Amino acid sequence: MKKLLLFCFLVSSNLGFAQQNLVPNWSFEDTLNCGQTVYPQMVCYPWFNPTNGTPDYFTPYNLIGCGTQLNYPGVGYQVAKTGGAYCGLFCWEQNNGREYIEIELSNSLKTGKKYKISFWASTADAANYQVDKLGAALTKDSLLALGAGNINFIPQINSIGGFLLTDTMNWFQINGEYIAAGGEKFITIGNFYDNSITQVDSIYPNNVNFYAAYYFIDDVSVVEDTSLSINVIGLNKCDVRFELNDAFELNFESNCSIGKISMWSSDGKIVYQTDGKLSNSKIELHSKLAKGIYFAKIYYQNNTTQVSKIFIKH
């Protein structure tokens, strides 16, 4: 009998009150510091550049010293997710070059509290390359660093590894939940992994404006999730456990009713997907799964979802 270990997480509840976003100037509209910035400040104050890279600020307003005009030739076209402005940064270059944006939160995170972290990104259509790594780091101190390479820090919030971020038409959300150690005061956004770990590909080989991966960033949010402290009947953890047998049947059990399950490998290939609601607690795989890491998205019948990692050991 072969065993699978699945990391399970709390499923977000739709219940709760609207909370304050701890990110000042979260959609980059404020430009009070126009024309007066001193490194590492950015014109979208109080955002700043923590390295020697040069992240960009895009704005529809034709103001001297206030960033780059939207849809700048050689970068690409995109409409802001919210308001009129957004930022842009290199997330991969052949010489391991990186750019980041960072800001101090309006309040420090509280020990043991759960926070919902989110930002939106869009792939620059003028860039030649796309990557699978884009995330956010929450730290007690600033990540100010010399040089223009990757910051050596493992971010708490990450895009799903193995899935290239290629959408140039739409904004896509990168989000996650984080239990605070306490005292985290800064959030930094970018690709924190060096080229040896970052998966990269040229999805648009005809784009020759610059040989790099470049992404637009908008709508950054750090919000405390108070649902954990609300005593509501039916607000439970949804746990699930899997077991793989020699017939390549994936048995599972959960304390919540599961509607359907999708499963894919770390390189983005779908290995299983239900067509509708599951009629039993067994998944029949059509081929042997290789040793490695897989991801499963569980759709519960209470209209919540959960994405978890599965480690297969033969």
Please provide a brief summary of the model.
Helix content is 0%, strand content 38%. An eight-stranded antiparallel beta sheet has the order 17-16-19-20-1-14-15-18, with no helix packed on it. Strands 2, 3, 4, 6, 7, 10, 12 and 13 form an eight-stranded mixed beta sheet that branches. It folds into two domains: 2-12 and 232-312, Immunoglobulin-like (Sandwich), CATH 2.60.40; 56-228, Jelly Rolls (Sandwich), CATH 2.60.120.
Descriptive overview:
- This protein has 314 residues and is mainly beta.
- It is built from no helices and 20 strands.
- The chain has strands spanning 2-6, 56-59, 68-69, 86-93, 101-104, 114-123, 127-131, 135-139, 157-158, 172-179, 186-190, 200-201, 210-224, 240-244, 249-254, 258-265, 270-273, 282-284, 292-300, 305-312.
- Mean pLDDT is 79; it is low at 1-17 and 228-236.
How does the SSE layout of this entry go?
Blueprint: E1 2-6, E2 56-59, E3 68-69, E4 86-93, E5 101-104, E6 114-123, E7 127-131, E8 135-139, E9 157-158, E10 172-179, E11 186-190, E12 200-201, E13 210-224, E14 240-244, E15 249-254, E16 258-265, E17 270-273, E18 282-284, E19 292-300, E20 305-312
Parallel strand pairs: 2-3, 7-13
Antiparallel strand pairs: 1-14, 1-20, 2-4, 4-13, 5-11, 6-10, 6-13, 7-12, 8-9, 8-11, 14-15, 15-18, 16-17, 16-19, 19-20
Poorly predicted runs are 1-17, 228-236
Helix count from the secondary structure assignment: 0
Could you name the CATH class of the largest domain?
A: Mainly Beta
By DSSP, the count of extended strands is: 20
What Rg, in angstroms, do the CA atoms define? 21 Å
Strand percentage, roughly?
Answer: 35-45%
Q: Which series of helices and strands comes N to C?
A: EEEEEEEEEEEEEEEEEEEE
Structurally, how many domains make up the residues?
A: 2
- By CATH, the architecture of the largest domain is named Sandwich
Largest sheet: 8 strands, antiparallel
Helical amount: under 10%
State the shape.
globular
Mean pLDDT: 79
CATH topology of the largest domain: Jelly Rolls
Task: Report how far the terminal alpha carbons are from each other.
Answer: 10 Å
Which secondary-structure class do the elements indicate? mainly beta
- Give, in spatial order, the strands making up the sheet with the most strands: 17-16-19-20-1-14-15-18
